[in-house]
Amino acid sequence: MLDKLPPPCSDAGAGGPESNATAPTRRIEPSDANRDSAEAEGGVVVRLTPDFVSDQELYGIARDPVPPLYTEAQMIFDGLHYFNECVSGDLISVSSHFNPFRIDLRQIEKVPRVYTNLLVSTSTLHRAMQGDVSFVRSSALIQRDQDLFHFRIRALQDINYRISKPDLQTSDSTFMCVLCLLLSTMAQSAYTDWRVHLEGARKIIQMRGGIERLITQNPFLKPLVAFFMIIDVVAATTTPSTHRYMAAATSMALHYWEAEEGIFQSILAISAPYPEDLFQSLILVNYLRSISGKPKLALRRQAGTRMVLAKIRSFNPTEWAARMKGFRGWKRTGDGVQFDTSQEPQSSPTDNPMPVIRSSEISGFNLWLSVGVIYRAAVLLYTIRTLILDLPEEKGFLYEDDPTLDVEKLRVQTYQILARALVPLFHDIDCARQIGKLVFFPVFVCGMETSPDNSEQQEFVTRGLYMLGQTMGTFGPISAVDELRGKWAADTAVPEGQRVTWDDYFRGRPDFIFGF
Q1: Of 39, 85, 293, 342, which residue has the fewest beta carbons closer than 10 angstroms?
Q2: Domains: count for the chain
Q3: Range of the domain at 33
Q4: Is the same domain home to 93 and 235?
């Protein structure tokens, strides 16, 4: 995300701590001559520091086996290299596609220091969660706990400085900083202050005139805007309808598809590749949940429920997967996604909705067919639970469009499809590592719909989430296990045949998001 963005005009010439944070970040390929010149000048070991380096310090670098400046530079290179190799791939859906989030280490002096601090701290945590023995022995990163907070605190100080300056608080670089901090915070915990950063990003977008104007001014922000949209919408699923931010968030999301034709295609390129129609449906469900406590809007909500239910049920995973066979991820310019329209659609038997995914097929038709089946089931279950079964009202309004509809039977069948479709993802460690990142929301919904007496399915979900958290280097899925266990315990405590509603469970609890 850092090496594709042009420098924000409003940041030019700004002062403040670590003033090199305003350096241009758009990738500039150096000539061989320039590269050789840079190496002759000692590389970036000295230039990484934001302060003036005296001759005495330079002399110390040559004589001291492990001087502080070299240690910090080594940490930065080690952290950014690790980010490129082990973290950046988790931010896109298919690793064989172009990745706009990788850092060009040859141009590291162009990377604002605030991003360096955030990415190194994120890499430190990710590496620790992998149980990497070499990480523990690293001479540069032996004090990883202190290093993590050291880099993170400096990043927070820099962001606070930017927000305090009127000419910087809504700039492209500040928006990038806040989104990076949001992603970094979510990786470290499903709780903490991620909500503050989400609302900060929302405020910047509103002050910039909305998403449409933001991406018109700088189309290279689309990878980050895609993450903002997905986090904003998914965060609303675990937010009670009465939450103070719920109404504003769901109302804003209703206008996302107005920003640009095909805007939701960008979601396909990141690590939560909701099919466009299902993502739009999820936005509508969240909005209908937000008005569920308003009797005057009951007719609107009921009509909306019928509409969104029909929209989700009409989604065809096979047709969608055939189109996704030509999906090529982000353009190399980073300002949109691309499809290879020359690809002939590949047919697939409609009686095989849950194909087994093998590592060799992760970029092929079976991957997208499975993703389509899984997300359709998850969004449908979330809709049935929150807009129909949890609400204490007569269900007659549902039968205006389909008199034969049996909601409970539909829920059970959909749950069975989701549970079976998730099984192959956790039988192969390679699939869990490469594909598990794509299905956080469906796995969580599967857990929320699992009955408290189904210990076998509970074990499958919790084991899968632990595996995802460890292989992906994020605490979000692991925190989700605690949430699901709390939900199962709450369901056990109510009278037989009853369940705690989705809204009631999350009401009054700390803000929670299951992560990316």
Answers
A1: 342
A2: 2
A3: 9-188
A4: no
Residues 6 or more apart whose CB falls under 8 angstroms from that of 499 comprise 491
298 within a domain of the structure (yes/no):
yes
| Same domain? 244 vs 385 | yes
Residue type, 294: K
Domain boundary among 166, 188, 210: 188
Same domain, 487 and 421: yes
Residue 313 lies in a domain: yes
Confirm whether 14 is domain-assigned. yes
The answer to whether residues 294 and 416 belong to one domain is yes
Asked whether residue 258 falls in the same domain as residue 398, the answer is yes
| 467 found inside a domain | yes
**181 and 228 Cβ atoms separated by less than 8 Å:** no
In contact, 87 and 271? CB cutoff 8 Å: no
Domain boundary among 171, 188, 205: 188
Integer-rounded Cα Rg, in Å, for the chain is: 24
For 24, list phi and psi in degrees, rounded to 5: -60, 145
The tokens describing 194, both together, are 């991620």
Same domain, 241 and 171: no
Partners of 92 in the beta sheet? 270
- Distance in Å from the first CA to the final CA of the chain: 16
Query: What is the residue-level pLDDT of the chain in tens, covering all 516 positions?
Result: 333 333 333 333 333 333 333 333 333 333 333 333 333 332 222 223 333 334 443 343 333 444 455 567 777 888 888 889 888 888 899 888 889 988 888 887 777 777 788 888 788 777 776 654 444 434 444 455 565 667 778 777 888 888 888 888 888 888 988 888 888 888 777 776 889 999 999 999 999 999 999 999 989 889 999 999 999 999 999 999 999 999 999 999 999 999 998 899 999 999 899 999 999 999 999 999 999 999 999 999 999 999 999 999 999 999 999 999 899 999 988 889 999 877 554 444 443 444 444 434 444 558 899 999 999 999 999 999 999 999 999 999 998 888 899 999 999 999 999 999 998 888 767 777 777 888 999 999 999 999 999 999 999 999 999 888 877 777 888 889 999 999 999 999 999 888 999 999 999 888 988 766
Same domain as 398, residue 310: yes
Backbone φ and ψ for 338, nearest 5 degrees, come out as: -140, 150
Instruction: Give the other-Cβ count within 10 Å of 139's Cβ.
Output: 9
Say whether both 169 and 273 belong to one domain: no
